[in-house]
Design a protein that fits this description.
about 0% strand, mainly alpha, 14 helices, DMT family transporter
Length: about 300
């Protein structure tokens, strides 16, 4: 026990000596690994259980792993005056999750991951429509470039568009709406409060869809679903903390690792080799999202330099 404690203290000391950028990048890489493992496990368990039931247990066990954090704060992080907005975010999130988990159960996971990269593109459009942000021509061109990448993957008119591809695209659009709500909530709420209410509402809202398709399962399947909840919690917490450590623009290039990990998992465990259209389309979509994030950072830096007081 003493060796473990000293080891943890040593790791903590080394971690604290790193720059915020390094910590943020390492946490972002950890989140991509955790998300990819969770997606692989969802695909695996969906062979014996419906996706709606898997989503319920992912949320229940995810919330269970958050409980120590809630108890340590004596549930103080649940104090909020925006419970309605948290609930709305939960409704949108659960629909997006159910769509995404269903897509994972019927489509190659690399393709699902590639199409999920359209979420920042949808969010850029919503930033104009909902948040009133102004976009210049280069951002609209980047958005069009992103949708071109989506068309490369889907190839409408050339091949039949499968249900899984449609579901993950709709899921990405809904997730973009949820991200806008998160952006609004973050003006007054801490990231811990947002994550905690996400876990609570997702757990509540996923009960009835799960009961609708409920099937019995054994202890081994339960163990896999506990792992889904664990890796989902690790992914969410790592991502949230990475965004606290450093600028999102510095982290976005590493988010592309998800496609690499899921492609490896799909090939190794499910015999799914992503086609060239998926890889090219994913690169185009991701490049577009990266460009939008970079231009947003440049715009903010320009605005802050104009408003900064003279020395």
């Amino acid at each position: 026990m003493g060796a473990l404690t000293s080891g943890l203290q040593g790791f903590s000391a080394v971690w604290c000596r790193q720059t915020p950028a390094v910590r943020g990048i390492l946490l972002m890489c950890l989140s991509t690994v955790a998300f990819s493992i969770m997606h692989g496990l969802v695909r695996f368990v969906s062979e014996v259980l419906p996706p709606f039931q898997i989503a319920f247990f992912r949320n229940v066990f995810g919330l269970a792993f958050l409980l120590p954090l809630l108890m340590r704060s004596r549930f103080a992080i649940l104090r909020t005056k925006r419970i309605g907005l948290h609930a709305l975010r939960g409704v949108i999130n659960i629909v997006a999750m159910l769509m995404f988990f269903t897509a994972l159960s019927i489509s190659p996971i690399a393709k699902v991951t590639a199409l999920s990269f359209t979420a920042p593109i949808f969010m850029a459009i919503l930033a104009v429509l909902v948040l009133g942000e102004r976009f210049r021509i280069y951002r609209w061109l980047a958005i069009l470039f992103g949708f071109l990448g989506m068309l490369i993957i889907l190839r409408p008119g050339l091949v039949a568009i499968d249900t899984g591809a449609l579901l993950v695209t709709c899921s990405a659009a809904l997730w973009a709406v949820a991200m806008v709500l998160i952006k609004i909530l973050s003006r007054t709420e801490s990231s811990l409060t947002i994550v905690a209410y996400m876990g609570i509402f997702l757990g509540i809202f996923s009960i009835f869809p799960a009961l609708w398709v409920w099937q019995p399962f054994g202890l081994q399947t339960l163990g896999w679903m506990i792992l889904i909840g664990l890796f989902g919690s690790i992914a969410q917490m790592s991502l949230s903390q990475s965004l606290k450590e450093t600028d999102p623009t510095a982290l976005m290039p590493f988010d592309f690792l998800k496609l690499i990990w899921t492609a490896l998992i799909g090939a190794w465990f499910f015999g799914e080799i992503p086609d060239i259209y998926t890889m090219i389309g994913a690169t185009v979509i991701f490049s577009s999202g990266l460009f939008i994030a970079w231009r947003e950072r440049q715009t903010k830096q320009t605005a802050s330099s104009h408003t900064a007081p003279l020395a």
